[in-house]
Amino acid sequence: xxxxxxxxxxxxxxxxxxxxxxxxxxxxxxxxxxxxxxxxxxxxxxxxxxxxxxxxxxxxxxxxxxxxxxxxxxxxxxxxxxxxxxxxxxxxxxxxxxxxxxxxxxxxxxxxxxxxxxxxxxxxxxxxxxxxxxxxxxx
Length: 139
Ligand code: HEM
Fold this sequence. Notes:
Blueprint: H1 2-18, H2 25-28, H3 31-47, H4 53-56, H5 61-75, H6 87-91, H7 98-114, H8 119-129, H9 133-136
Helix pairs in contact: 3-5, 3-7
Protoporphyrin IX containing FE binds near residues 52, 55, 59, 85 and 96.
């Protein structure tokens, strides 16, 4: 009987261990200050990338910063409301192709690496952004 109880407790603990939940993505990103830091690193990476910089030369980078922070805050489960335009409206006339899209995602990965976000946090954010691809790439 004692053995059965010990087995039951250890199995329960093992199951708990494997089901351990992570904090919400918003918290993993460091809340709003963390998202602002990520956005600044992202904007820096965009500026150093010959493929993505030309798109942003004529843009209002302060507006982009504010809207991007709002967007990431909202989709990661934070207490924000995105007040920018739809992804299709913003990017529709830009003739963005797969290579440009991948280049910008790469800028974001560089930014996430620069601020040392864990890989699992990076992957969670990327998987939330991936469905936007169809609204951004020109067809
Ligand atoms: C998942 C990918 C992307 C996300 C989440 C995203 C998000 C955003 C957001 C939130 C804005 C601000 C919208 C507003 O002002 O109302 C924006 C603007 C902009 N995005 Fe994207 N974007 C993505 C991909 C791209 C790509 C691939 C390019 C080009 C290579 C690009 C170029 C721009 C530019 C130039 C602006 C500024 C537009 C302006 O000032 O009128 N974006 N994006």
